[in-house]
Amino acid sequence: KLNNKSVELGDDTKKGTRVKVFGRIHRLTVGKSATFIRLKDGYGLLQCVLQAGDLTKTYDALTFALETSIVLYGELRTVPEGNTAPDGRELQVDYYKVLGAAPSDLDAITNKVSRQSDPWDAAMLDNRHLVLRGETASSVMKLREFVELAFIDTYREMQITKVSPPAMVQTQVEGGSTLFKYDYYGEEAYLTQSSQLYLETVIPSLGDVYCIEKSFRAERSLTRRHLAEYAHVEAELDFIEFDDLLQHIEEIISRVVDKVLADEKASEYIKTLNPEFKKPSRPFMRMKYEEAIEWLNKQDPPIPNEEGNPHVFGDDIAEAAERRMTDIINRPILLTHFPVEIKAFYMKKDPNDLRVTESVDVLMPGVGEIVGGSMRMEDWDELIAAYKKNDIGHEAYYWYTDQRKYGTSPHGGYGLGLERFLAWMAGQHTVRTCTLYPRFMGRCKP
Ligand code: 4AD
Ligand code: MG
Q: Name one GO cellular component term (predicted).
């Protein structure tokens, strides 16, 4: 592995260790006195030098087309002052063998993938498998792993149990319009929109729980932040009040950021991908939906609703307005108390103001909503009435409703879009570059 730093280096005065390295050619510079190969594997980069002489007679530039896989032998040495070689070392090659050639003609990777790969460009999306070979795309994917592991570690420290609910379901969570339907042995079934309902059913037996599973949404809008398949970090907490939920969400985000920044490699990725990134200061700003409506109307010029009119109570805050507000305020916002009418059927009403729910979205500069959560209806009758009001046949939900029959409790939870969180930390313009192979309307390949 090219990031292995345990090998003894040589310099002008002493011999280094002779090593054998595998990798792919990431960059090539052919000079008069030497050829430089920037070798790459999934772990790092290594500068390899072939001094002009017998060795250089065995190849021309085409032998070393970019992405060629190769094994090289030689002595690992410290580079002289002022050299830009990664990790301050280079391999003085004395033998090599090409293992897998790569095209150097029209099919050369540089012709397939431009350096400033535009995530909206169809050719770039078709060639995502090649785009992923680039430093930026692969850094984002490496960082994603750190972020995911930071969530897992933090939940573990909080004694929250990881579970794995089914992806094949017969109930909706976030509205019928974004359901992916399919035929399940002759019955209608869906790909899950959220594991929330299942998490709620297991808190009596397992205590606080979380999962990191895929959620699926048949979104019809092609925005920067919508995917048809995304990684959903969801947690459900028992015997809490709304304020506990808000505290917890702020805590988990802050601790995950701390963990990622505390890791040397992960913080290096952030420094290159998003040099501006700063850990958000606590406490996060809190704002009620109703205050947000006023705030939007008070701007000069006012930020209108989707129809171009001033916002009124009950309006959805659309993506564009939400993002403008977050960018102007420029810090994380816990936006709370959304009206009953624009929120999901299961959300608990605020006992002090029955027009609104005990709900929260977390908004982040550059991205907007990254978390959606709420307290859940505890009462059986109220839940049955909510199904009716939302035109949901309650029979399919018997197992969820039973939660209110067998020892109901004040509880709540949230879902966080991992790609959106990553887009925020890694400064990515769109969630499409925050997942290996993005899925959205019109795209199901590669
Ligand atoms: O706000 P949402 O729809 O809430 C729920 O699904 C709740 N049932 C979660 C819960 O309480 N357990 O989705 C939660 C988060 C959003 O804030 C967003 O970050 C992400 O999931 N998300 C998407 N990410 C990418 N593409 C999409 N189409 C997304 N839809 C939601
Ligand atoms: Mg939401």
A: cytoplasm
